Model the fold of this input.
Amino acid sequence: LAYEPHFHFKFEIDQSTCTTERLCSSRLPFSMIMETSQYVYRAFPGSAAYSDFRLKRLAAAIGAQDLQAIWVHYVASYQELTSDQVTVLDQLLEYGSFPQATEPLYPQLLQAVVTGASQNDEGIAFFYVTPRPGTISPWSSKATSIALVCGLEKTVHRIERGVVLAAKFDSSSPGQDIQADALHDRMTESFATSPPDLDAMFAQLPPAPLKRVNLLHGSSDPTEALKVANKTLGLALDESEMEYLIDAYTNQLKRDPTDVELFMFAQVNSEHCRHKQFNADWTIDGVRKARSLFSMIRNTHNAHPQHVISAYSDNAAVLQGYEGALWAPDQSAGEWKPDEIVEVRLGGGYKGSRHTGHRQLAVRWKEEDSDTGCPQMQGAAHLQASTLRSVRLRAYCASQTVWYSVAV
Done:
């Protein structure tokens, strides 16, 4: 079946497992192969992408009667995968819980992965959410790394993940005027009513050549030239920063800056890195304020230090917890035991024991600027790991809570 002039599809359907009672098993019954001049692509349908609660909320947002979503994994390989390699990928890509076989939209989703459908004759529309072209998702980096150490290093180029959704509408033209923003994050994802262009998803473009911004030898004056570069490159430089750069390059260095230098300056000097506003001195209505915004935040702890073990000295705060014991792995015995008898190895080769005692609570909050392009779920996962890293040698935490938000 020719799906596109340059794409030729092969379909593999395991008839022994493709039944109405069980549409998924440890060996997924459906897969799709696409051959191009550079890579061989294969799509593996996966588990449920969203909880029932989230599906109901999204269905209401787009005006659908019913909505179902599953993960779909796109594998780019250097040659067609063997049956053993497919088995390895099936095992690696099986995680989470699968929709019930009785879900009316689940068979439609599996068929959409196989056929690349955009809608059918039953008032059902399909939507595809994938990482933005030109980006590599954090999930892809980890999944590809795992696949390569599982014997696929000479076969698999990269694995990426997306979501395919099936929505049932009342109208005869389903999905025509839906709120696409409700189904994807525009900052990190792409939305489409047809399958993604896998050549674009897995494309590796050569590095762009170094460019110079003409401050000294351009047709316009340096200020105008830098303002144009500021807007074109998305540097978010303010007036004082541009004045500083113009003086540095025209009077001191006496040469034109490169785009790389301007990018580096913009990032290092950004609010995210320097906290220029939060650490600044403020004068309001002619009155100099005693505290910066950051010191105002810290003042809460200064006024009420009770039940706080550590604050503002690490990347996470530690609060007083409670007495109790936890289960932990015993590395010497290879089994789980109550932690009061477990020996553990900490950083720097230190060997110690975890005992019944006071369990502390780690708390951390982080906000990212929108231009960082970091998705919320992966950002929170990184935040959780770095929280443990920050406090692991000084407090054994029974639990931790993280807040992660992305500024608009």
